[in-house]
Amino acid sequence: MRRDIIIIAFLASRSLAVTFNVPATAPASASALDPAPVGISYEFFTFPAYMNDVASTKQCMQNMRDLSGTWPPIRIGGTTQDRATYDAASSAAVTYSVANEKDAPMTLTFGPSFMSIAGTYAGSVVVGLNREKNNQANTIAAAREAKAKIPNLLAIELGNEPECRLTPLLDDPIPHWRNANARSDAQAQGNWQIAVGNGVGTTPLIQAANSLKNPPEWGAIQLLNVQNATAVSHIKTISHHNYPGGTVQSLMSHSNVIRNIGSFSADVQAAKNAGKPYVFGEMNSATGGGASGVSPKFGAALWVADVSLRAATAGISRSYFHHGTIGNCQYCWWGRYNVGAPYYGAVFATAVMAGGAKIAPLDTGSSNYGGYVVYDSAGAPIRVSVHNSDYFSGSGSRSSQQFILTGLSGETVSAKRLTAPSAESRQDQGQTPTFGGQSFENGSCLATGTAKVETAEVSAGRVTFTLAASEALLVNL
Ligand SMILES: *[C@@H]1O[C@H](CO)[C@@H](O)[C@H](O)[C@H]1NC(C)=O
Ligand SMILES: *[C@@H]1O[C@H](CO)[C@@H](O)[C@H](O)[C@H]1NC(C)=O
């Protein structure tokens, strides 16, 4: 008897639906959407290999383009941009040697063909160049080559995560950098912005800041406080890096996503006040190529989906998810042989924002249940996403949550579900996620499986969906 009572109480608590009202016109607080807000960052030394030796690269990016109509933006950079020297005489795209193919090189050179490869890409390109070696003439020569060879060049970065160079590095101990702090580095960046911008003859050209440490210590605010108008005139975009880390459960938690993105709001506003778009120029679930217990899992896909939408909602124009050493990259969306579960989150977020003009949140971020609404250029809502970030480990029973959307017009809506056996699922271990019933094939990134669209009737402007723990849903209005 007692057992029955407990079960009834349990079911009752589960039936408390979450209600999201969908405003019929874009609220004043809605943020403008970039045509392709979800992008990819490629570690500098390995970019040519991704383009030339990894069959999935083109198809995985094309899947995103097919959804949004715009190739995902790419950024080429990272730790090895500050270990790289341009060699105009080299016929190789990159030259380096490593003891183990899972290592990143401590030093490398790159030739003009590096920029030619980047120039073949049909989407926008940001190239990160060296500042750490303090060889301005070399960086200007490389930037000129980038400008000449990349028709879609969006910006050039000057140095990667400068605050990470403050402690002497055994491999590259350059005194100039050891003495830097946020203020002196902002000044140094300003000098470089002017020198490289003038050297290439393009203003504005520079993606500035590029710090990892959270604002306000490092970021747009401190940079703009230090630099004068001439230096600022060379800034095209301001970039910050973002690696929240944690466990699968804490990473995918919707309220944690809101908290993380919220910590950038003053920095984004400062950039906006200066007329500069703010981007996450490099991000992913955990630093150093990712955490094996977190980054390759479906919970990380739910994080990619949520954080991409939340960043766009907070006025962060583009999020570039980092891809490191091929064959040694836990968070990568694809490699030579596999597609990673997190890729499904990127496809989901791209599909939600495709063709949208504005985005607004549907919730305040106080629970595990979230939602976003996307508006077209006429101001009409076209799509909603709903997120159940309750963690399901894969054992025991999987809870579920009802979501009610209100304020809708029309008679039916269709939906595509993002799901997997659990938050711990990894495609390379046989627990393949699906989005709208389909998966992406290992080694090719081609969609496979039968597409599945759910439909639901709208009654008095309301529609109800049920999401299992660790699922998200795209609703076409
Ligand atoms: C702005 O700062 C740069 C150094 O970053 C300096 O060379 C330049 O003279 C300054 N310009 C003005 C107008 O103060
Ligand atoms: C990917 O590879 C894993 C491991 O071989 C396999 O179990 C899974 O079914 C594959 N999934 C797809 C969609 O290719």
UniProtKB/TrEMBL annotation:
InterPro entries xref list: GH, GH79_Enzymes, GlcAase_C, Glyco_hydro_b
Matching Gene3D superfamilies: Glycosidases, Golgi alpha-mannosidase II
Region described as Disordered: spans on this chain: 419-440
One Gene Ontology term of the molecular function aspect: hydrolase activity
Entry keyword set: Hydrolase, Signal
Residues annotated as signal peptide: 1-17
Polar residues composition bias: residue spans: 422-440
UniProt KW Disulfide bond keyword: no
Sequence ranges assigned to domain Beta-glucuronidase C-terminal in this UniProt record: 371-474
Pfam families: Glyco_hydro_79C
PANTHER family, per database record: BETA-GLUCURONIDASE, BETA-GLUCURONIDASE C-TERMINAL DOMAIN-CONTAINING PROTEIN
Protein name (record): Glycoside hydrolase family 79 protein
Organism of origin: Patellaria atrata CBS 101060
Record lineage: Eukaryota, Fungi, Dikarya, Ascomycota, Pezizomycotina
